[in-house]
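Notes from hallway chat w/ T.B., transcribed later so I don't forget. T.B. wanted the structure written out for a chain they're using in a teaching module, and asked if we could keep both sequence and structure tokens in one place. Agreed to drop them here.
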Amino acid sequence: MSLVYRTLVASVDRLRRLARLEHVKTHTFFAGSLTPQSVVVDLGANVGAFADELNRRFDCRCLAVEALPELCATIPRRPGLEVFNVAIADADGPVTMHLSDNRECNSVDLSIATAFGYRGTVTCEGMTLESFLARQGVAEIDLLKVDIEGAEGPMFGATPDAVLRRARQVSIEFHDFIRDSISTEEVQAIFDRMGRLGFHCMPFSYVHPHMKNADVLFIQLDAAGVGPLQKAVFALIGLLLRAEDLKARLALRLRPKPVAVPG
């Protein structure tokens, strides 16, 4: 790791703390807007580590949504932490989940499960994000965390703009780093759409340089209560991240091409 890169990471980490941008289980979010009255929706809760942490820290209502019964059963049950054995999908109805040896990589996407050791399938209840929120009576979301292993593309495709705007911030892992999953072009289209809807887009690619969109924050600055100083820090972080991304792109283009050795 180069000195310049280490300096970038240290600088962004200091700025994140100043802006109250926090990081739990690979997901960055704005903690300044979370109170005991907040609603957090955790899609792809796995064993509940993210929802459990936020429920404990902010004493807020957390809805942990996990498709696999075996993982769902391990999520803590206590006041304020609600657990739902559901897969968020592009339609209401049964969903086939492909199981992986890595418990964090079970997916509707066969390529993701296969990449980490395939071990069969299971069928579970599926519904759209819109249907899930309606069933639970959730009108506004203070933080929507999305880590649904390749189903993020279908989820966005099935979710109307008005429903997305109900989330003040969205912390998401895109899986375009896995072959045959969502493409980088599809991810960019989602970036463009969220920008049109009024979200400020922050890809924290410096955390996972080989997984460019593994930690992305979409946030409606005013709706989330981001103050003037914090907005300025957000802008500075964005400049640093774009500079690092540009440097990485240039380095890739300037990398010498391998020379074929005559056989």
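Follow-up for T.B.: The domain at 3-251 is CATH 3.40.50.150 (Rossmann fold). Might be a good example for the class.
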